[in-house]
Design goal:
The protein is of the alpha/beta class. The protein folds into three domains: about 35 residues; about 120 residues, no CATH class; about 110 residues, no CATH class. It contains 13 helices and eight strands. An eight-stranded parallel beta sheet has the order 1-2-3-4-5-6-7-8. Strand 2, helix 6 and strand 3 form a beta-alpha-beta unit. The longest helix is centred in the N-terminal third of the chain and has 14 residues. The chain is globular, with a radius of gyration of 21 Å.
């Protein structure tokens, strides 16, 4: 009697669901059968960090050179460019042109430049970005917040400092889909002095201030936060220890970065936390 078999569509759904839920199982799944290998291999690259460890990056650049089909690159949904010393910018751009299904892109400040804009415009699902706009556009005067590359952005981690970006900062309201904005420590100083107001962005669901936990002593950091008299239920102040590690953790579904801050705002809306409290789930010791 022949063993029962599942329809291929259902079999594929089961294997892909297992790979996404348990990424550590992917190496074992790849050995099940040839057709399973074809289905699952792209999921190895759902989250890609171009960093000093060149293993995955080299495999992807080789996939570009060997002409892998477009669908192979469509599996990449989260991409961070953390180091560029090991590769040519042309190689990174060639890869990114094929990654049209990226949802979440993070770039160290030295990477973006205007040549990246048409590539970003080709990404059909780009919603989250962490980068320097001044570098991306080539200077404050060149920033165009109506550019097609930015129209679907819902989450923006703005790497530029206030002194460099104040001329166009108010224009961030031009981004039609923006609901989550993250700013650095120097912006917190400006908000704390009342020079900018969260009330200027009624569509924002979250305004997150973040800076590295090693930038000042814990006591001074806590005091600076406490003395900033900026009250809004949508406001959260957070710290990070290793930005790129925490970026990856959230990409994999962990409670970090945006997710952690959203949870904090939700708890304020429910009345579980005082609405005027802005200090979120931090790594601090008052």
């Amino acid at each position: 009697m022949a063993e029962p078999t599942l329809p291929l569509e259902l079999e594929r759904e089961i294997f892909e669901h297992t790979a996404l839920m348990f990424p550590q199982s992917i190496p074992s799944l790849l050995r099940v059968a040839r057709h399973v290998y074809i289905w699952i291999e792209p999921l190895l690259y759902r989250i890609v960090r171009l960093e000093d460890d060149i293993g995955i990056a080299s495999a992807l650049f080789n996939a570009v050179k060997t002409g892998r089909p477009p669908e192979f690159f469509h599996a990449i949904h989260h991409l961070s460019v953390e180091a560029t010393n090991a590769w040519l910018f042309e190689d990174i751009h060639s890869l990114m042109k094929r990654c049209i299904e990226i949802r979440n892109l993070a770039c160290l400040s030295s990477f973006p430049n205007p040549s990246l804009l048409p590539i970003l415009a080709g990404m059909r699902s780009l919603q989250r970005m962490s980068c320097s706009f001044l570098d991306l556009f080539g200077g404050a005067q060149a920033v165009d917040l109506t550019h097609p590359a930015l129209q679907s952005l819902t989450h923006l981690d703005f790497f530029d400092v206030y002194s460099e970006s104040r001329d166009f900062f108010d224009a961030l309201s031009l981004l039609p889909a923006l609901t989550h904005l993250c700013l650095g420590q120097d912006y917190w100083n400006v908000f704390a002095r009342g020079q900018l107001s969260i009330a200027d962005w009624p569509r924002l669901e979250l305004l997150l201030f973040q800076w590295c936990s090693s930038m000042m002593s814990r006591r001074k950091r806590y005091q600076a936060m406490k003395e900033g008299h900026v009250y809004d239920i949508r406001l959260v102040i957070g710290l990070y220890t290793d930005y790129w590690e925490e970026w990856e953790l959230e990409a994999r579904g962990g409670l970090k970065f945006w997710a952690e801050a959203d949870d904090f705002v939700l708890r304020k809306r429910r009345g579980e936390i005082e609405g005027t409290v802005s200090i979120g789930q931090l790594h601090y010791d008052p």
